[in-house]
Amino acid sequence: MAKKDVPPRWDRKMQQRLARGEAAALGELYDRFASLVHGLAHRVLGDERAADGITREVFVHVWEHPDSYDPKQGPLRTWVATLTHRLAVQRLRATETAALARDGSGTAEELEHKVRHAAVAARADYIVQSMPVPLRSALERAYFQRRDYRQTAADLGITEDEARRRLRLGLQLLSTAHDTQAPGAPPGYGGAV
Question: Where is the signal peptide (predicted)?
Fold first, then answer.
């Protein structure tokens, strides 16, 4: 296996520790990924309590099925995000389908539109969170603080050309949120919503 194909050591060791049933490993994993899991679930479901439930489900699944993660398939972070996305979309579909059957308001097409919209938003969040810090910092200044590339360059202490490059690359990555197989998005993160 080529050097670049070797999964990160932390991911392999964590998977092995979880497979041995080390409770401390689950605690470390939770500390590292709980905010990612909860944030993605909340983005899909729009409900704090439902996101809490998905967060519990994800970590229970990881604890009970540590061998379902294959380090050769990608980073543990991506696997956890994919699992979160799948469970949250399943919950959203079930909840919305039950509401549709109970109230009769809305259509199946509206339900699918809502699910797809939530999936794109979750992919966008994941892409931004996974972005290198220099790109994310530039985008955050431009979007949240409404800074142009000159102001962003001054804020970050970089050249204007570098600020434009970071903003352009960050926006290109973010634009892939609509793609069903977006680079930077977890495998299976798009097509199977």
Answer: none
